[in-house]
Design brief:
single chain; 407 residues; alpha/beta; Rossmann fold; Beta-Lactamase; six-stranded mixed sheet; five-stranded antiparallel sheet; 24% strand; globular; binds guanosine-5'-triphosphate
Length: 407
């Protein structure tokens, strides 16, 4: 079986760029090359072909249930999704992406370490060369991408075949279907397409005797936030601590006059948790964009190192507050492991002050700011408590961080 390959000679050459493999040492003696490499925690070396110097890497079954497998027919949009969500590529730039020919894996390190493995549409995973059984048994979620702008009947047949196989070898697998490229469809047509795809998939599964299998459907496009929303929900299902996290966020909302709170992965804008109130896509957009604004503004200011003793300097913690019109506040605070908490605080007290209704603008501003300062102090305090709890939760989490696993 050949899952993932790396050429040792090339690895040595491009080790600076390659973040997944780290060469610890190598020795070239009497025509013999000995290389010692550090692998990401998800992989083990199965064998090394001494002729070609290629190593076969296999997902490590111990901790790979946080692997997402991205599948679908050719040109469905799989690579574009990976590039846009995990590499901040502009959606229009995906027009020039070449077809993927080999399986590729993205490492995504957030509250949990997870990998997103993309299988090219042109490969047949059920041919004998592929150890599909081992692959499917070690993953947490199967994400199948359907191009909604194209004829999708073949994709649905392919999907049910994959579900049948995946469910047989791994009944715990989450099956997620992205009805993708909906930006090209009218609102009515989107709903019709979704209904039709759900109906046909249900019928196919019924024919296969798999009516009990849970399949989730998402309408997505890389041209809006729907793809982030879908991936957020998919990733959340793989976080074992999600119920406790949501509970903590609900408590925070309750005790801090917060309207909506998200725990974001800063790089990808995926939210790994939110409170239990429904997610309104506009609130999500505002909060996600606030992360970019905060980071851009933060980059503008360079700290003056001259005054500080470098040894005693603590890493700076990002915190940003923005007062919106009508008394609402956007609040961001850096958490652990590339996460940030972003909250929308609707300041009802400030809105109902008498100063809001008459012409005394100065008085209104002063009162608003007094109320906001008071509530911000409480919010700061509560969010600090949340951060400490999050830290404790992560330390006790069963997901072992990559670094400590390999050191
Ligand atoms: N309109 C629209 N086009 C999209 C969207 N996502 C991807 N595309 C386009 O779809 C085309 C194919 O995308 P790819 O990401 O290469 O598809 P793929 O599934 O990786 O294809 P293979 O590598 O052949 O398996 C590209 O031209 C993308 O720009 C979307 O949400 N909306």
């Amino acid at each position: 079986m050949k899952k993932s390959k790396c050429n040792m000679k090339k690895t040595l050459a491009c080790v600076q760029e390659c973040k997944k493999l780290v060469v610890l040492s190598y020795e070239h003696k009497e025509n013999k090359l000995t290389v010692s490499i550090k692998l990401p925690s998800h992989y083990t070396v199965q064998d090394i072909d001494t002729q070609t110097m290629e190593a076969t890497l296999l997902p490590n079954p111990k901790d790979t249930n946080a692997t997402i497998l991205l599948m679908g027919l050719r040109r469905g949009g799989k690579s574009s999704i990976c590039k846009v969500v995990f590499h901040n590529m502009q959606p229009l730039d995906t027009l020039y992406l070449e077809s993927t020919s080999k399986p590729t894996t993205e490492q995504f390190s957030s509250l949990i370490d997870l990998s997103v493995m993309e299988l090219p549409g042109q490969l047949n995973y059920f041919e004998p060369n592929y150890d599909s059984e081992r692959l499917f048994s070690s993953i947490g979620a199967l994400v199948y991408v359907i191009d909604s702008q194209d004829e999708y009947l073949n994709a649905l047949t392919n999907l049910s075949m994959i579900i049948e196989f995946a469910y047989k070898v791994n009944p715990k697998i989450n099956i997620e279907v992205l009805i993708h490229k909906i930006d090209g469809l009218s609102e009515d047509y989107r709903m019709d397409a979704q209904r039709d795809i759900m109906q046909r998939t249900g019928d196919e599964l019924l024919d296969l005797g798999l009516e009990g299998v849970q399949v989730s459907f998402y309408l997505t496009s890389i041209f809006d936030h729907s793809i982030y929303e879908a991936f957020s929900r998919i990733v959340q299902k793989l976080i074992p601590e999600l119920p406790s996290l949501e509970n903590m966020l609900d408590n925070l909302v309750q005790h801090s006059s917060i309207d909506k709170v998200f725990l974001f992965d800063v790089n990808s804008k995926i939210y790994v948790a939110t409170d239990s109130s429904p997610v309104d896509i506009q609130t999500y957009e505002v909060c996600a964009e606030f992360i970019d604004i905060t980071i851009d503004l933060d980059d503008l200011y360079v700290e003056n190192d001259d005054d500080d003793d470098n040894n005693t300097k603590q890493p700076r913690e990002l915190r940003s507050v923005s007062h919106l019109s009508q008394g609402s506040i956007l609040y961001l605070k850096q958490m652990i492991r590339g996460l940030a908490l972003v909250a929308l605080i609707k300041n009802e007290d400030a809105r109902s002050l008498p100063g809001n209704n008459d012409n005394d603008f100065d008085q209104k501003l002063q009162s608003n700011s007094a109320v906001q300062d008071k509530s911000l102090t409480i919010i700061d305090y509560n969010i600090n408590l949340f951060k400490k709890a999050l830290m404790r939760m992560w330390e006790h989490s069963r997901f072992v961080p990559v670094e400590s696993n390999n050191n």
